[in-house]
């Protein structure tokens, strides 16, 4: 099932970017980011700001087919110290674009929702996860709003089946009606993923059918921890999770669902 959400994705981007900027502003730009091997904080901020700018260009154009190029005038700062303000400016440009048009307009997207709003929601969780990366790199324990985290779990699991062109491992997520359940322990949220011979995805019949299914493996945790697990920022062996069932199936999921 997908959790019904009242999350304001545009406002979330502004808040997450502001927190991201505050986290890195006084930090050493050369600090390694363990959750993104080989990257420094500068690399992390450059990536996040570049993604925001690219998505903003796509939204401005309201593209109706896959883009042929990812070339964007990034206007990179002259040195590492300029990256925090540069990231803040990317979010400001995005906010201006959000306010200038109807985000319910039809638009090409690589995921399930073929509307402009897809890119706003996607930008939010790109920003949130990399804000978490920055905090982890600096030895901080990230906090994530539970409702926002639950929406992020839904967004990830809804769109992952469409991500094969940049997440090729997902092609291996097949099975003879195998099921993986992710259950939130701090509120309403239960997601049942089916692995079938022809692909995988969230329970196609909705919550009514899913509630009666005993999954082959179940992962229980808070919405925030489930989100970080899905993005590979928390290991399934962490004591924050309860795991019941087929550990090999879960390992297979982890190995092939990298986003």
List strands and helices in order, with pairings.
Blueprint lengths: L8 H16 L16 H21 L21 H18 L16 H21 L8 H14 L18 E7 L5 E7 L2 E4 L4 H4 L6 E5 L1 H8 L11 E4 L1 H10 L3
Parallel strand pairs: 1-4
Antiparallel strand pairs: 1-2, 2-3, 4-5
Helix pairs in contact: 1-3, 1-4, 2-3, 2-4, 5-7
Q: Could you walk me through the main structural features you see in this protein, from its secondary elements to its overall organization?
A:
By secondary structure, the chain is α+β, with helices and mostly antiparallel strands. 43% of the residues lie in helices and 10% in strands. It folds into 2 domains: 9-143, dinb family like domain (Four Helix Bundle (Hemerythrin (Met), subunit A), Up-down Bundle); 153-256, Nonspecific Lipid-transfer Protein, Chain A (2-Layer Sandwich). The chain has helices spanning 9-24, 41-61, 83-100, 117-137, 146-159, 207-210, 223-230, 247-256, and strands at residues 178-184, 190-196, 199-202, 217-221, 242-245. Strands 3-2-1-4-5 form a 5-stranded mixed beta sheet. The radius of gyration is 18 Å and the shape is globular.
In short:
This protein has 259 residues and is α+β, with helices and mostly antiparallel strands. The protein is 43% helix and 10% strand.
Summary keywords:
259 residues; alpha+beta; Four Helix Bundle (Hemerythrin (Met), subunit A); Nonspecific Lipid-transfer Protein, Chain A; 2 domains; five-stranded mixed beta sheet; 8 helices; 5 strands; 43% helix; globular
The total tally of domains equals 2
Structural class: alpha+beta
- Low-confidence runs: none
Secondary-structure arrangement, i.e. CATH architecture of the largest domain: Up-down Bundle
The CATH superfamily of the largest domain is dinb family like domain
Number of strands: 5
Largest sheet: 5 strands, mixed
Mean pLDDT: 94
Highest-level CATH class of the largest domain: Mainly Alpha
Number of helices: 8
Looking across the biggest beta sheet, what order are the strands in?
Answer: 3-2-1-4-5
**From N to C, what is the helix and strand string?**
HHHHHEEEHEHEH
The dominant shape is globular
Rg result: 18 Å
Kindly report the CATH topology of the largest domain: Four Helix Bundle (Hemerythrin (Met), subunit A)
Beta content comes to 5-15%
């Amino acid at each position: 099932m997908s959790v019904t959400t009242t999350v304001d994705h545009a406002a979330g981007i502004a808040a997450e970017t502001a927190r991201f900027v505050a986290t890195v502003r006084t930090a050493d730009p050369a600090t390694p980011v363990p959750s993104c091997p080989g990257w420094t904080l500068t690399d992390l901020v450059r990536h996040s700001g570049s993604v925001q700018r690219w998505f903003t260009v796509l939204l401005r154009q309201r593209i109706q087919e896959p883009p042929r190029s990812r070339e964007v005038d990034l206007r990179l700062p002259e040195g590492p110290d300029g990256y925090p303000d540069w990231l803040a400016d990317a979010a400001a440009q995005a906010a201006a674009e959000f306010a200038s048009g109807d985000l319910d307009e039809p638009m090409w997207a690589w995921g399930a929702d073929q509307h402009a709003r897809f890119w706003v929601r996607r930008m939010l969780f790109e920003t949130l996860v990399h804000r978490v990366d920055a905090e982890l790199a600096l030895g901080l324990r990230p906090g994530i709003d539970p409702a926002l985290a639950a929406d992020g779990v839904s967004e990830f699991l809804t769109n992952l089946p469409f991500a094969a062109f940049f997440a090729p491992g997902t092609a291996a997520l097949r099975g003879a009606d195998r099921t993986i359940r992710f259950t939130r322990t701090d509120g309403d949220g239960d997601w049942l993923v089916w692995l079938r011979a022809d692909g995988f995805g969230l329970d196609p019949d909705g919550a009514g059918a899913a509630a009666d299914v005993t999954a082959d493996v179940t992962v229980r945790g808070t919405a925030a921890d489930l989100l970080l697990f899905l993005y590979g920022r928390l290991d399934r062996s962490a004591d924050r999770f309860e795991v019941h069932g087929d550990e090999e199936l879960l390992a297979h999921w982890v190995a092939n669902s990298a986003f």
